[in-house]
Amino acid sequence: MSTVEPASALPVPYKARKQAQPKYARPNAPIVPPGSVTGRSLALVIAIMGFLASITACGVYVVFNAANVWTNRISAEITVQIQPRADTSGDDRTAEIVQFLKDQNGIARVTPFSQEQSLKLVEPWIGRSEVLKSFAIPKLIAVQIDTSSPPDIATLKTVLESKFPGALLDDHGLWRNEIRRLTRLLEIGGIGMLFLMAMATAAVIVAAATSALASNREIVSVLNLVGAEEKFIARQFETHFLKVGVKAGIFGAGLAGLLFLCLPYITEGISTSATSAAEIRRLVGAGTLDIGGYAVLVVVVVAVALICKLTSRYGVRRILNHQNS
């Protein structure tokens, strides 16, 4: 006589048993969930820090390039000033000096300035006035130097000023020194700001790692009980913060790159006239980034990721060592 087995004793198919398992049984679940409050808040802070660091680093890079262009232009040109003298004709002396300069080795081009051209040089400071035409303004001669075989400026200055009294040669050394000094100060200031941002980011990472470790204390305790090493636990936190740092760094650097890409249009929009916009471009260039500038953005992203990785490793291992000691 056959007996009917109860429904609870019947074998359950494998697929049904798998679907009946609890949802939380995920063997590869990370210790720190990527979408946690720690991840979102930290990503926002790091993105802001990455944006500010990218702006600072690229700003220093743009200013450094503009200063190099200025220095190269100044180094490739000297100026001769001819003081007016009552005993000689200004035009005759100018022609003699121009011919003398053309005969010298290492001189590429000699360009005498007219009175109107000389007045335009001082218009930005004293304005335009017809009264200036009655003043005895020194005549100017722009001398382009052959950079491949430049002359001895000191010897040329001595010979010129002794042969033509009243003529002064300016090699723009004062301007070059001032530009180098200003550029050096900007570089030091930029490096100091980057250092402070790195320290602030590291402090935020340590605080976030401490908070994440405290909120997952039970999981860490279970891992310690089953024999997980501190290196393994620290690597889980390190991987989490590294991913957050890479994503946030890319976002901040990308936003900075977009800002520099739109900078010429922003400059034109805030400038009161086309002349002021042209003066700004002449001072610092177009403000856009070249290949080197975008390489600086990549370096900032890598630096942000490394700070997140190394700082989280240090913070987590220090806390674990303190708890286990």
Low-confidence stretches: 14-27
Say how many strands there are: 4
Strand/helix succession: HHEHEHEHEHHHHH
Distance between the termini: 69 Å
Decide which structural class fits the backbone: alpha+beta
Overall mean confidence score, pLDDT: 76
- Strand fraction equals 5-15%
Largest sheet, order of strands side by side?
2-3-1-4
Q: What is the percent of helical residues?
A: 55-70%
Task: Describe the structure concisely for a colleague.
This protein is an alpha+beta fold and 325 residues long. It has helices at 14-19, 37-75, 90-102, 115-126, 153-163, 173-215, 217-225, 230-270, 274-284, 291-324, and strands at residues 77-82, 107-112, 139-145, 167-170.
Describe the structure in your own words:
The chain is an alpha+beta fold. Helix content is 67%, strand content 7%. It has ten helices and four strands. It has helices at residues 14-19, 37-75, 90-102, 115-126, 153-163, 173-215, 217-225, 230-270, 274-284, 291-324; strands spanning 77-82, 107-112, 139-145, 167-170. It has a four-stranded antiparallel beta sheet with strand order 2-3-1-4. The chain is elongated and about 100 Å long. 20% of the residues are buried. Mean pLDDT is 76; it is low at 14-27.
Compile the SSE list and pairings.
Layout: H1 14-19, H2 37-75, E1 77-82, H3 90-102, E2 107-112, H4 115-126, E3 139-145, H5 153-163, E4 167-170, H6 173-215, H7 217-225, H8 230-270, H9 274-284, H10 291-324
Helix pairs in contact: 2-6, 2-8, 2-10, 6-10, 8-10
Properties at a glance:
325 residues; alpha+beta; 4-stranded antiparallel β-sheet; 4 strands
